[in-house]
Structure formats: structure tokens, C-alpha cells
Amino acid sequence: MKITVLFGTESGNSELIANDIAAEASSAGHETTVFDLQDFDPANFTPSEFYVVVCSTHGEGDLPNTALPFAEAFDADPPAMDGIKYAVFGLGDTFYEETYSRGSEHLDARFSAQGAERVGEYGRHDASGWDLGSDVALAWLPGILEAAEAA
Ligand SMILES: Cc1cc2nc3c(=O)[nH]c(=O)nc-3n(C[C@H](O)[C@H](O)[C@H](O)COP(=O)(O)O)c2cc1C
């Protein structure tokens, strides 16, 4: 499978996790590319790739800095995303209570509104928990890849 991992970050956690996901998927035989969302043009979504979105939460439940130019470009000219499949791994901190893990949900809402289909479980990492983000993400990944291949 061809996999594009997209990350949005402010302090680097999502980038580390995105790179670990890509390395794991590559060693499982997938062809993998990683982009910071700020370097990804929303016009370039293609059904031949499976997208894994890794994105944190900042401000008050908002997108992190590197996802902002992407969201602006997306809203200025929303791409048709029919036939596109993706998974989401959201980062956040339950310390923030009602805005917990909302950042990635802003992207999920945009993608599904444009006709893309989210597959598998919605992954989450809580910075207040004991588990490392990459450990949680790598435990989540096999189920996602299986769901993507079956979809
Ligand atoms: C200023 C600031 C605001 C944050 N706001 C939220 C929030 O509203 N909700 C949430 O779930 N996490 C929030 N977080 C937690 C981050 O999402 C979490 O630390 C994440 O691991 C950061 O990932 P990143 O390094 O990829 O940006 C906030 C963190 C900071 C520093």
C-alpha cells in the first residue's frame, strides 16, 4: 500500500510519532512518505494513497501551528475527496478537559465533509497519561493498516 503520513505539530511530538509510524509501515513493506501539513498542498490528495493524519491540539482545542496554513488553503479551495481513505491519530492532554484532543478533529471534519472516508479506530494520545505517544501509535497502527487494506 502507498501511505502518506501527514503531521501537524507545534512542539514536535506529532512529527516524532509520524516518523515512527512511517518507519514501522515501511518495514512492514509499505511505500511511505511523510509531510508536515504546512508543506502539503490540499489539491494533491489522491485515492492511490492511504493517508494517516497525526495532529496535536493547541490554543483552546485548536489546530497546531503547522496545520494552520494547510487548513487555510483547504478552506479557500476545498478539494473533492471522494474515494480517499484516511486514519487519524490525535494528540492532546486531558488536563485541558473539554477541549481534549480537538485539534485533529478539525481536520477529520474537513476531510469527511469533502467525501473522504475515515477507516479504523480514531487513535488518541493523552500527554497526561503514562504511555509514550509512539508506543500508543505503534500499537494502534496494525489495526489501521488492516482496516485500510480491507476497505
Ligand atoms: C499552549 C498549549 C495549549 C494546549 N491546548 C490543548 C488543548 O486545548 N487540548 C488538548 O487536548 N491538548 C492541548 N495541549 C496539549 C498538546 O496537544 C500536547 O502536549 C501534544 O502532545 C503536543 O504535540 P505537538 O508537540 O505535536 O504539538 C496544549 C499544549 C500547549 C503547550
List descriptors.
Rossmann fold; 4 helices; alpha/beta; binds flavin mononucleotide; globular; 151 residues
Fold and architecture overview:
The chain is α/β, with parallel strands linked by helices. It has one domain (2-150): Rossmann fold. The chain contains four helices and six strands; from the N terminus they run βαββαβαββα. The chain has helices at 13-27, 68-76, 102-113, 133-150; strands spanning 2-8, 31-36, 50-55, 85-92, 117-118, 123-126. Strands 1, 2, 3, 4, 5 and 6 form a six-stranded parallel β-sheet that branches. β1 (2-8), α1 (13-27) and β2 (31-36) form a beta-alpha-beta unit. The longest helix is centred in the last third of the chain and has 18 residues, at 133-150. It starts with a strand and ends with a helix. 38% of the residues are buried. The model has no long low-confidence stretch (mean pLDDT 98). The structure holds flavin mononucleotide. Flavin mononucleotide (FMN) binds at residues 9-14, 56-61, 64, 91-93, 96, 99-101, 127. Flavin mononucleotide (FMN) is lined by residues 9-14, 56-61, 64, 91-93, 96, 99-101, 127.
